[in-house]
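[audit] Reproducing an earlier prediction to check determinism. Same input, same settings, fresh worker. If the tokens differ from the archived copy the diff job will pick it up downstream; this log only records the rerun itself.
[audit] input (257 residues):
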Amino acid sequence: MMDVHHAPQYLPDLVLDIIFSNLELPDLLSCMLVCQNWNRVINDTRSETWKLICRRKIPKELLKSELLSQLHSHKAKLRALYHSWNPDDCSMHIVVKQNGFTLHRNPVAQSTDMARTKIGYSSGKHVWEITWTGPLGTVAMVGVSTKEAPVHCSGYLPLLGIDKHSWGWNLIDNVLLHNGVSHGSYPLLNNAPKYQIGEKLQLILDSENGTLHFEKCNEFLGIAFKNLPKTKLYPSVSAVYGNTEISVVYIGKPLYG
């Protein structure tokens, strides 16, 4: 890495953009502390820096895909990449695709498999978009978990919510589960329809108030869980169906509330 404390601060924005675009995120954060001018260039969501990094990190077809269509800046798309599925924190039967946003559950019999995102939160309010793009099978769960929650078990079970370290919504029977105990039906709507493959769910974690809820097509589905612990929680899914695929996109902070 270059010696940022002795580098010239008067370089044109375009030159700074090219330099910054070759750095990794931790180095960019260090550069933001050097001077106001560097901070300005890096903080600008319209900066060429983010566009150039995106082109290096994310395939062109994915940048323009429906999957990332809700993200309107290159900085937001790059941030979502850093919040995507963690290939080092999932079941051995799950493969995270090269784009990082989509996982594939291999066809293994009598196995329930879970995956978590790379980044969890214990403060603030955050929104993720989760989409099941393959068959659901007999158990298909979405929710949050801590690092202590297991990512695999034998049989076809509601793994996400099976112990005190995870909270899950089973899309098959519309039941909430935590610590192995049912927490009632969900969504909290009259005659709530079942989830359909391809629908986009918004998972909203409010760490300040200790709540988790979901939205679909901008419709509030009710509070799923309250009194969540003040520890890092990670958006998670557990699946049983072979070859199913699930995508996650970090949207950021809620527009309202």
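[audit] rerun output stored. Observation attached for the diff report: The mean pLDDT is 90.
[audit] end
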